[in-house]
């Protein structure tokens, strides 16, 4: 009996323990299930979806960037994106073979490609923007190796800049993932990039897609497009002339230019030269610098050197450069002095070659031949430093500070471009005021200066510069418009009118005569400044030569700033190096903008003539047509009608030319060697060309007085040219050596 009771008790205890263990285990399962299905539901739901679905990203088309006339400057071209299903690869041999093929065809790094193939994901983006020829080679590889279940293509697009280097520093560029990295592309990336879509497809246990009824599609939304204020034609004129100036003056750093609508603040053109191709933004343009970087052995040092070179290459110096404006700033000083009524047109200034402020003697640029007594107009025309020191001291530190801020020179302009600088300004002592008055020892950006000068020109209103005119949705509808934004009234309309006349006189009779543009009223100011910090570091003279102008002077439409950073040569002053660049630009821009030329009597006397087609006319009729044009003719032979002529019809020549009319036979077919005309006077150059049967067309300072000589000829010395050809020469007043 006792044994049976013992066995029965043991069984009961075992059952009890079993029940307790069962309850504990069941409770643990319940808790675990509760944790998985309630508390951590989202996590496990996502894991299940990842195992049962494949999600494919659908990329939007990036918006187009247009110039103001709807010419596309940045577009997205259709191509393909290569996708690899890493979970379907069966061996390391397959991965190595695929990596080798892709790295060769797509010109990508093998090791990084091999690393991608090791992923177990069913959606690996191998490359975006695969061009057709490369896609065809990959399709052949897929077919040959029966990999159609392991990789495929999706539609994609790649950013493309159809005009290569054109407007590079403004447009910027995108990276391999279509993300904006510089310029407008960076500044407006959110608007341009659009919204990604996705396609979610159900898959079986092997990762293969189920029929399309199990597919969910979320459509991508294409990016907005931008219409810039940039005018492609004006931009072309600016870039062309910057490149010429860069090469003519052996510039060591860069040539920078801005064209602004003075009445709206719209930026019509903006460039920095040398430029780069946004299609190949990571290629260093300076081949010598690239070769030097390639020689660096230390990997980190090489990477840093390349990074610095690319950053400098991409920098839009029109907004990012901080420089001493020099005598171009005298426009602002004079406007302040007039507005505050501390000077008027009859105020006189004495220049003895220098001016003493405290213990400091500050020299005039023409200390060897002082300007002596001069009124306000003459002081501006002469760009006389002592006169402007006196002006600055009359204004006073407090008032000068107030206007410096009012002209927007102590803050960013707010332009819709990245990388804008504010410069440096710290006026405390009287000596600071003295040198600040003629633009030294403080810094501004080119954009700040042209914005301030535009305020002087447009009636006294400071405007906010802008470069995006409109934002368009993917259907082409305007969703945002930008226009004139007034910041503040800085000077009065009366002061503006007086300043227009004074600054125009700098070009007509002052230090800016080489910017004189026949038929058009151009106002402007030279400026040549020292790069003091760089000079101390490098132990040699370094200069920035600049010229700011606006036209027409009586009713301004545009302002133009050209800056040459470290020109080298016999003469580096702005009156010689930059003023001719302003003239060349204005000669093209004014007719394009529809500004009608208005010639003075002197200009009409020297006006160029377009030669008509006189062939087939009688000698009397031909001479009559030439006489009405104000040009002479000379006949050769005794025939009844003109058989041939020199110069050829359509040629543009000076009105002093004599047209040769051949009455019996064609003009002689012979060639001559082009002489070197540099440094010659106009009369000497004309007689030299006439002596060998060549005609001349004159540009530049042909209406001026002084040391005027040839500085350029469109046909290089020693080149063989046809008899009767028209040679274009450019004249410059070599006495314009002011700052």
Provide the gyration radius in Å.
37 Å
Shape: globular
Terminal Cα separation, in Å? 129 Å
Name of the CATH first level of the domain at 320-523: Alpha Beta
User: What is the helix fraction of residues, given as a range?
Assistant: 25-40%
Structural notes for this entry:
Helix 10 runs antiparallel to helix 11 and helix 15 crosses helix 17. Strands 2, 3, 4, 5, 8, 16 and 17 form a 7-stranded mixed β-sheet that branches. The protein has a 5-stranded antiparallel β-sheet with strand order 10-9-21-20-19, with helices on both faces. Among the domains are: 175 residues, Alpha-Beta Complex (Penicillin-binding protein 2a (Domain 2)); 204 residues, DD-peptidase/beta-lactamase superfamily (Beta-lactamase), CATH 3.40.710; 127 residues, 2-Layer Sandwich (Trypsin Inhibitor V, Chain A), CATH 3.30.10.20. With 739 residues, it is of the alpha+beta class. The protein is globular. It is built from 25 helices and 31 strands.
Keywords:
globular; alpha+beta; Penicillin-binding protein 2a (Domain 2); Beta-lactamase; 739 residues; five-stranded antiparallel sheet; single chain; Trypsin Inhibitor V, Chain A; seven-stranded mixed sheet
């Amino acid at each position: 009996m006792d044994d049976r009771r013992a066995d029965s008790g043991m069984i009961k205890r075992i059952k009890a323990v079993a029940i307790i263990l069962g309850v504990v285990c069941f409770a643990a399962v319940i808790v675990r299930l509760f944790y998985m299905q309630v508390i951590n539901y989202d996590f496990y739901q996502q894991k299940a979806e990842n195992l049962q679905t494949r999600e494919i990203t659908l990329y939007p088309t990036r918006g187009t960037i247009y110039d103001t006339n709807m010419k596309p400057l940045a577009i997205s071209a259709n191509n393909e994106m290569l996708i690899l299903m890493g979970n379907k690869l069966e061996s390391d041999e397959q991965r190595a073979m695929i990596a080798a093929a892709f790295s060769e065809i797509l010109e990508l790094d093998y090791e990084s490609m091999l690393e991608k193939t090791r992923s177990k994901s069913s959606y690996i983006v191998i490359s975006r923007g695969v061009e057709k020829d490369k896609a065809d080679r990959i399709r052949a590889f897929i077919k040959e190796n029966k990999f159609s279940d392991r990789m495929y293509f999706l539609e994609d697009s790649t950013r493309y800049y159809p005009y290569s280097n054109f407007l590079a520093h403004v447009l910027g560029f995108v990276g391999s993932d279509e993300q904006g990295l510089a310029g407008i592309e960076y500044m407006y990336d959110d608007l341009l990039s659009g919204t990604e879509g996705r396609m979610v497809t159900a898959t079986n246990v092997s990762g293969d897609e189920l029929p399309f009824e199990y597919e969910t599609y979320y459509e991508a939304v294409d990016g907005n497009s931008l219409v810039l204020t940039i005018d492609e034609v004006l931009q072309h004129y600016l870039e062309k002339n910057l490149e010429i100036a860069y090469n003519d003056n052996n510039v060591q750093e860069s040539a920078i230019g801005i064209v602004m609508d003075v009445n709206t603040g719209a930026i019509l053109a903006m460039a920095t030269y040398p430029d780069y191709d946004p299609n190949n933004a990571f290629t260093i343009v300076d081949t010598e610098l690239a070769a030097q970087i390639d020689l660096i052995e230390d990997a980190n040092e090489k990477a840093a050197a390349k990074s610095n070179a690319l950053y400098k290459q991409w920098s839009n110096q029109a907004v990012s450069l901080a420089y001493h404006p020099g005598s171009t700033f005298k426009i602002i000083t004079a406007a302040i002095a007039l507005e505050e009524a501390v000077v008027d047109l009859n105020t006189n200034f004495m220049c003895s070659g220098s001016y003493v402020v405290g213990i400091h003697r500050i020299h005039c640029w023409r200390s060897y031949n002082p300007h002596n007594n001069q009124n306000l107009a003459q002081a501006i025309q002469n760009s006389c430093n002592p006169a402007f020191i006196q002006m600055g001291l009359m204004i006073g530190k407090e008032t000068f500070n107030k206007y410096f801020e009012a002209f927007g020179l102590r803050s960013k302009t707010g332009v819709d471009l990245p990388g804008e600088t504010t410069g440096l300004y710290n006026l405390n002592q009287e000596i600071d005021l003295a040198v600040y008055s003629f633009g030294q020892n403080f810094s501004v950006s080119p954009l700040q200066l042209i914005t301030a000068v535009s305020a002087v020109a447009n009636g006294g209103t400071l405007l906010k510069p802008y470069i995006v005119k409109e934002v368009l949705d993917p259907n082409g509808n305007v969703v945002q418009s930008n226009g004139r934004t007034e910041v503040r009234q800085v000077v009065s309309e009366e002061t503006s009118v007086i300043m227009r006349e004074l600054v125009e006189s700098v070009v007509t009779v002052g230090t800016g005569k080489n910017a004189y543009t026949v038929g058009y009223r151009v106002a402007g100011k030279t400026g040549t400044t020292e790069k003091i910090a760089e000079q101390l570091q490098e132990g040699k003279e370094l200069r920035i030569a600049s010229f700011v102008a606006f036209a027409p002077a009586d009713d301004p439409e545009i302002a133009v700033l050209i800056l040459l950073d470290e020109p080298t040569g016999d003469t580096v002053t702005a009156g010689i190096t930059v003023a001719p660049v302003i003239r060349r630009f204005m000669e093209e821009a004014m007719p394009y903008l529809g500004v009608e030329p208005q010639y003075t009597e002197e200009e009409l006397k020297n006006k160029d003539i377009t030669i008509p087609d006189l062939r087939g006319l009688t000698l009397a009729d031909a001479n009559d047509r030439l006489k009405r044009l104000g040009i002479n003719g000379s006949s050769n032979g005794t025939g009844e009608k003109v058989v041939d002529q020199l110069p050829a019809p359509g040629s543009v020549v000076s009105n002093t030319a004599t047209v040769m009319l051949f009455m019996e036979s064609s003009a002689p077919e012979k060639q001559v060697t082009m002489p070197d005309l540099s440094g010659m006077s106009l009369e000497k150059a004309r007689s030299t060309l006439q002596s060998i049967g060549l005609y001349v067309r004159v540009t530049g300072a042909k209406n001026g007085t002084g040391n005027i000589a040839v500085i350029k000829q469109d046909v290089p010395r020693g080149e063989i040219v046809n008899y009767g050809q028209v040679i274009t020469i450019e004249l410059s007043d070599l006495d314009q050596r002011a700052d």
